[in-house]
Each structure stands twice: as structure tokens, then as C-alpha cells.
């Protein structure tokens, strides 16, 4: 079982939920930028949430399915088509052997995820299949997917056969057949400009000048084109410390908002370094990581403060929504 | 209601505070010192041996240990307050750390280095600005034991303390685009080793044939926070030999 990459797209990588446990050795987490979307894609095809999927960035790849597959596409709507026919996101899709999946113009968001039932058959490095681009490891040969690559897949689990047949019969067609139900999009989020991003104050918030503290909440910031999986460089009002302070290097994580001396904030993302020495003004809450991951260069965001209690209850709500999708799929596949 | 300000723990000078909704920082002091480092190390060792359900991983740094946790698991699927629960666990661990900080003996790791020549193109420069001969720079660099305060910046990259200030050198004005893996350099009053090929602005004085980062190994980073590093000078031939042995194995 395999997929063939016909064209690569802008940046198409294999990602799972990241390489955990090695940050104390300087090894970055990597993993999906929008992990909620990847988890949902996996759940929709009957996989474990932790399976690796394909992360697609803005301009999608062209992929040929060598055998029939059950797949799901989640996250951004980058106008996916199967054999030229538009298909919908956030639901299971059946693709026949020889079918071609391609993407059109981005309609909403920046990153889409493709999961295949059974998962990709890719060796793990340090417990994860995520592509770690800077060190050239994980994923497929440590690199983004390229034209000509063959991506091996595990076989479709037998338990999904009846589910697959029910999709095909209901649609009375083969390739591109999709369920008439999908994940309730209110579980995800809505797009806005500027996108409100909820944060907690960071450990060094108190070191910023009173003016900068005000500006941080009041002003919108724009994602610049110098943004990648490591972090978004933002443009907007410059921020400064009340007085020069030497900051000792300490851990940074996904969603840490740090401010280098030049004054423009950087939001760290999936490929963030493990430690940093810039003052951390804020920390994005986990429930808003999807919103953050779906911003593209030139999009605007505005930071909003929440309490730790609110942040953690939103975290728990998001976990419950994944459980809800799992429950719904179990019900649908058992018919 | 949880107080977001730094909270004082039962051990004097130790503070706990959140880094977002899924990490707690345990801070043992506010400046680099061997005493603070010992506490960081003892706490990390304790956590490694006594992980709790919902612990994802932890990252030791100069004065802090940042503990990443899964709020969903810690809270027993949303039934308890995750932050209260996790700080409770950590508070109860602190008294053990105070005892252990005195006892633990550090591991000494020897790093053979071919100094100068093509491996250390900036050795002459470092010697010149310090009014020393290249041999004196090597002698001063190999004389010291260096404490690994933390690993960060790149896989297996050690933040080393203890370099003799007589061999300090400013960073290069224009960073090199590619520094070979194993390069040993000086930047300001710090010395370090590049585990992987990266761009960088350090003055390069030598190179080690020993791999600092082995992705397939059980412990990918050769060095761990708390280790002591001792550099030894080796010849060009010994360097080549070690490199070849590595390729064969």
C-alpha cells in the first residue's frame, strides 16, 4: 500500500503529535502545527490520534493513491479535489486505486492534514515519525515530501470494510465518495481578522514598560512572511523592557510569545528551540493553538488575556470534543 | 482562585509559576551558581526516577526546571483543578531534593579535541587578541573542568560554565554559514561544542571526533545537564583514526 507524490506543494511534511521526552537533550518537539486537526483526521479514519499524517501548507501537493483508501482531510480548507471533483473536509472520504488528490486555492486557514486509515508505514526516530527538518531526521528521510516520493501505508483494517461499503453505497459512486455527516465545525473555530488569540501573561510580563504592557493588549499584530514552523515574526508596535535586564536561558514552548531586543514579538510554534533567553511576555493557551497554526503571512491577530483557570477549562473542553468525535465515529462505523 | 504571581514554596527561595496552561516552572534561584545548579540537577533526577501520571517531560535550565504536563490526564478527565494538582505533586517532591543535592557525584566526560589547523581556524586569532601563544590557549582550555549547566539551542548542545577568562574572544562579526559538527568554539566568556552542522558566530579553536548527538541511541545527547566536561588535546592522526573507527562501527 502506498501513495505517490506527484508534486510537492509549498511545504508538505509528515507529522504526528511530536517527539516528547528529549527536550532536556536539546531535541525539539516538532509535530503537527494544528494538532487538534491532525487528531480529528486520525479519529475520522479509525486511527489512533497519535498516528502520523501529512501536513499541507497553503499550496497543497498532488498525490496519487496506488490502492483504494479511506482518508480524511481536516484543518484549513485548501480546496481539495479528487479526480477533479471538489470534496469536503472534516469527514471520511473513499478514494479508489489510481485516484488523484490535489488542492486549489486556499479558502480558509493555512494548514490542512491528511490521514489515511491504517496510517503511514514510516519508521519512528526517538519515538516519533515527525519530520525534524533542521536535523534531517524523522518523516520520510528527514525531508519535506518531494515529487517522486513513495509514501508507504499500512493496509486498511478489516474492521473498517463495512463502514467503507456503506459510504460507497450511500453515494452511489466510488472515488470521492464521502459521508453525509462531518465534524461539527463549532468544535474547531471561526476565522476572524484580527484573530483573537488568548494568552496568559508570561513569566517576564512584569519586566516590560507600562506603555508596552498596554500596547501588547491594545494593538493588533501582523504575521510577517519571515514565519515558519519555528515561529511567527510579528509586525506592529514595538515592545520594550522598563529597564535593561539580563535574562537567563530557560525553557520555551509552543505558543511562547518572546520579545527580542529589536522589540517585535515572536510567537514560537512546533519547531521551537527547547530553551531561549528572550523575555517571555505571554503564553498562548492550548485551546487557541489551532487558531494560531491556521494564520498565514499578512493575517492579523490580537492578544487577549485569560486566567489560568479559564485556559485549563478550555483545554479540558477541547479534549472532551475529541472524545465526542471518537464516540460519534464508533456509533457510525458500528452500523 | 489560583494566584498567577510567583508563589513561594515551603523550601526557601524556590518558586513555582505557570508557563501557560500545560507547564509549571520550578525556580531555584535567580542567578547562575553551582549551588542553584545542584538543586536543579537533584530535582531533575528525582523527577526522572519518580514520574507522576500526566507528566510529559521536563527541561532543566540554569536556575529552573520546567515541567510539562497533560492537564486532561492530571485532572482525571476534567474532574480536578490541573494546576493545583500538579503543583501539589511538585511541592511534595521538594524536601527530597534538599537532601539529595548534597550527595550526587557528577559524571566526568572526556572530549578529545584536535586543536588548530583546519579544525580550529580561529585558534590563532583567539591567541593573538589575548596576547598568548596558540599552545597557551590550548593549555588553558584543557586545564579546566567545565560544568554542563544545561542542554539547549541545538540537539546535544551544552551550555558550559567555568572557562578561563584569559582565553575569552568576541563572536565573529559575520557568522559562518556552515560550522562542521564537533567544532569547539569560544564566544565571549563561554566555550561550547556544535553537535550538528549549523550556521554560527563562535570562534572555532578545534574539533572533536566524538559525536555529541546520536539520534538512534538510547540517550541521543552525549552530555547531560550536571556532567563535567574535560577537553584533552589530540593529534590530527588520532582525530582521523577516531573518525574512521566511528564510520566503521
TrEMBL record, chain A:
Coiled-coil stretches: none
SMART domains membership: AHS2
InterPro entries for the chain: CT_A_B, Cyclophilin-like_dom_sf, PxpC
A GO term for molecular function: hydrolase activity
Signal peptide: none
Keyword Nucleotide-binding: yes
KW Transmembrane helix (keyword) present: no
Keywords: ATP-binding, Hydrolase, Nucleotide-binding
Domain Carboxyltransferase intervals: 24-321
PANTHER family according to UniProt: 5-OXOPROLINASE SUBUNIT C
Name under which the protein is recorded: KipI antagonist
Automatic annotation (TrEMBL), chain B:
Keyword ATP-binding annotated: yes
Keywords recorded for this protein, A-Z: ATP-binding, Hydrolase, Nucleotide-binding
Keyword Hydrolase among record annotations: yes
Domain Carboxyltransferase: residue ranges: 14-223
Coiled-coil ranges per UniProt: none
GO MF, one example: ATP binding
NCBIfam families noted in UniProt: 5-oxoprolinase subunit PxpB
Protein name in UniProt: Allophanate hydrolase subunit 1
Taxonomic classification: Bacteria, Pseudomonadati, Bacteroidota, Cytophagia, Cytophagales
